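agent> Task received from the user: take the single chain below, predict its 3D structure, and emit structure tokens. No templates, no multimer pairing.
agent> Plan: (1) validate residues, (2) run structure prediction, (3) serialize to tokens, (4) report one or two observations.
agent> Step 1 OK, no nonstandard residues flagged.
tool_call: predict_structure(input=
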Amino acid sequence: MERIKRKDIKHDEFVDTSFKILRVIEEHPKRLLTAIGGLLAIVVIVSGVMTWNKKSAESTADELSRAQAAQVGTIALDGNPQPNRPYNPSFESADQRMKEALGRLASAAEGSGQGAKLANYLHGTLLLESGDTAAAVAELKKSAEALGSDPTVGGGVREVYALALEKSGAHDEALTVWEELAAEDSGYPRDLGLFGLARVLAQTGDAAASRSAYEEIVELYPESPVLAKAKDALAASGGQ
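)
tool_result: status=success, residues=240
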């Protein structure tokens, strides 16, 4: 009997709830339809945004592939360059190849997602290689802000940004970045960070601090790829 009563109670609750819903539909049909329409609109918008984001990211990845193809494009020795081919272009000169690669990277950088951030970084590095240091610093600053904390590529991005700052003569800003990279918890090889720091310190005239950074490399990092250069710098400055 107890089981039957519980079953009846549940049944009555379901019936009551059903009647309440039906009453709302009868008394406020427009309000209910508006609410349903709003929910459907939200679903459509969210679905559309997700689809657009996916297509945009795919388009950016394709632009990035085209840009990288241009970077490694061949010089047409037969006098018949094909710079407009998307994935295997050829160029009449290295300058034309550089120009095309820069254009494709700039286009990819205007996209969305991680591909656009990577394209922005590659665009900055190529600008630096081309000699347009001011434009490179501007692009690489954006890259450092967007990717600098990434555990995989962050250190390398900040390194190139520091090099661009150094090349542009912005030594104070370069020192700030190298100091961050030389910190023990930066995620970047500390010996390389110290080497960059020591180099810029020497450029600013702080010979004592520069020697100290070089000495730290020699003392703590016997397997460092910059060990020989650190020793040479110390010898040149009158150190060990």
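agent> Step 4: summary for the user.
Residues 131 and 222 are 35 Å apart (CA to CA).
agent> Done.
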